Amino acid sequence: MALTRSTRRLIWLLGLALLAAALAGAGCLSPLGFDEQAWRSQVAAQDPAALRAPHRDPETGAFFNPWNRQERPWWDLWRWFLSRDSTPEGTPDQPVPVVANSGDYLADPAAPPSLTWIGHASYALQWGGPVVVSDPFFGPRAAVVSRRVPPAFGPEKIPDGAVVVISHNHYDHLDAESVAALGPRVRFLCPLGLKGLLEEMGAVQVTELDWWQSLEIGGTRFTCLPVQHWSRRFGQGLNQSLWCAWMMEREGRRVFYGGDSGYFVGFKEYGRLWPGIDIALMPVGAYLPRWFMHYAHMDPDEVLAASRELGARVVVPTQWGVLKLGDEPAAWPAAALAQLAAQSGWRGRVVLLPVGGRMSLDGDLLPR
Q1: Rounded (5°) CA angle 349-159-165
Q2: For residue 317, what are the β-bridge partners?
């Protein structure tokens, strides 16, 4: 009897999970060293003009970052699995804070402008016009990694006609169950190479954008922007779809959703091109071990530096606490960022929302 595609996928994922668990348990190699100063010098030397350079190989169709093309041996992933935990001794683990939230106000067009953390990289932005949702993740796991806390509410609370922005195809940012639940009722914006996959998952209205392309929907302007990342998932080869951040503008206000990214020249450029960003949603999780994660993920120090370059009035850390994706404890990166901000004169400008937390676009907590 022939196996269905979903059954083959499940078998593949289970096999991968067992292999990863076995390798991680081995812990037989020491983590490689990493030269932070050399890496910062490399970032400082990046040319902002490269942000607008061609970024797709005409022969293979694969996308790439033209300012700092990633070169990584295939065995690096296995070395990480085989390495001992790189988290500094004494780094505390702690639960992510959670508050109850019905989500009912999202259906009220008269509700005050607000931002709600649904969980991980999923946020609901309500500011007139269609509600905007970033990388909806309502499912129980991202590939083989189970979530530590449930989402603030279910996909049924997202109103009809909402706009969903997708940053890239990794499982913690593109969740098939969530797309299926929202698919017939919302409009999806995604980077190049993802429209077909989203439609397979159940999306009906899908628009692909390349870097620097913009689209206006219901009075909100969405601009697809470069970030330093990569893409791959089961059924899509390495870098066969693009990755991006989103700049969202409405009635003089600006919200930047950083998707997933390493530290790169783009943050300084976006701060120059879009002065007066109200809120920057900045990814801070999965940064250890640095030798492996530095290209595609920022540590707390880099997130603070990138936030300064953006010039954002309020910074909200994303993708922490809900999934453990790096060596470090899942909730630690955001706490470390808040501590750094307080020590460097940014006290109050970094807001750590609990899952289910709701805030105004000025950073003040709101009732749920």
Answers
A1: 55
A2: 282
